[in-house]
Each structure stands twice: as C-alpha cells, then as structure tokens.
C-alpha cells in the first residue's frame, strides 16, 4: 500500500518535486499530517525553474542537488512529466512516498501505490486499486472497485463512479463525471464538466454532455 498515512516525523527528509500550484497543495497535505513542527523536518521543493528561491517558507533546490536515498513525491499534474521525473528520482536511489491528507477518506480494502497523492476532501471508496504516482485532487470522488493505473490524474470535483478503469496517464477534468463500469483509455483526457457515458479510447480527448 505504498506508505499511506505515514506521518512525517522529526528529522525526516522529503523532496516535493514541483513548486507550482499542485506542489503547494501537496505541501498543505504534508503539513496537515506532520507529527513534528515544519522546522523539525527537512522539507524542500525540487524545481529546476526556481532554484535558490524560497516558496511557502521552503528552500527550492535544483535536481542536481538532490541527495540519493531520500523520500520524494512528484507534485506535477502533467502525467508525462510526472512519469519522467519519477523515473529519474527512482534511478537515483530515491524512494517514492505516498501522501494522504488527513481530511481525505479512504475506504477499506483499497490499495494506494507509491507516490500517490490524495488531497483534502477527496473520497476513495472501498476495494479501489490505485497505481503509482496517482493524483486525486480535493473534492474528487472515486467509487468502489475502480482501478486507477499509474500516473492517473483526477482533478478537483470530478466524480468517478464504481467499477471504472482509468488507464495509465489518463486525466479526468474538474467536475467531470464518469458513469459506472466504463473504461477510460491510456493517456486519454476527459474535459472539465464532461459526462462520460461510453468507453473512451486510448489517447482520445472528449468533452461535453455526453462526452464526445
């Protein structure tokens, strides 16, 4: 189950890779579950676009300054970028950490893979299997018996009904609805507010009500 619900303790190093909007929201989730005060733990952002800056009180380092063997979480929404950076961190000996905001709900018999992030008020129902480096944003819901393959992104307020399979690297837009038992293919994109009533092929972009 990855490292679900393991709060960060004093002296623990965690790299948050990506200092943009989702990176800061991931920091919120980390701090909400922190057993020590923030100053007692070695948190920092890794972002080659902002090295040397201080964001939300944390130092930002470049990827070249990352120490091997430390925990990390990829906090970037783009699944292709997330995959590339995760592979780079893992090849350098770092360890992917799963981050679950204490305000998220996770049902029984649910598996969360390494590096997955669940933000506040997300609701993951029972018997769900989420792969590695999945992101479920605030107020999003995932129904029973769903399968979320690696690098899936479920954006704020989306509702994924029971028995749905989301293929690797697929994205469900803000406020979108996926009806029960459907498949969204690898790398597909469901637009904001769309209602998915049929299977979505791999690589497709669908939008509207019903989604086409």
Structural features, described:
This protein has 212 residues and is an alpha/beta fold. It has a domain at 13-99: 3-Layer(aba) Sandwich (Rossmann fold). The protein is 12% helix and 27% strand. The protein contains 2 helices and 24 strands. A 7-stranded parallel sheet has the order 7-10-13-16-19-22-24, with helices on one face. Strand 3 (54-55) and strand 4 (58-61) form a beta hairpin. It is globular and about 45 Å long. The model is unreliable at 1-11 (pLDDT under 50).
Give me the secondary-structure topology:
Layout: E1 13-17, H1 21-32, E2 42-46, E3 54-55, E4 58-61, E5 71-74, H2 79-91, E6 95-96, E7 99-100, E8 105-106, E9 111-112, E10 117-118, E11 123-124, E12 129-130, E13 135-136, E14 141-142, E15 147-148, E16 153-154, E17 159-160, E18 165-166, E19 171-172, E20 177-178, E21 183-184, E22 189-190, E23 195-196, E24 205-206
Parallel strand pairs: 1-2, 1-5, 2-4, 5-6, 7-10, 8-11, 9-12, 10-13, 11-14, 12-15, 13-16, 14-17, 15-18, 16-19, 17-20, 18-21, 19-22, 20-23, 22-24
Antiparallel strand pairs: 3-4
Nutshell version of this structure?
By secondary structure, this protein is of the alpha/beta class. It has a domain at about 15-100: Rossmann fold. The protein contains 2 helices and 24 strands.
Write a concise keyword list for the protein shown above.
212 residues, alpha/beta, Rossmann fold, seven-stranded parallel sheet, six-stranded mixed sheet, 12% helix, globular
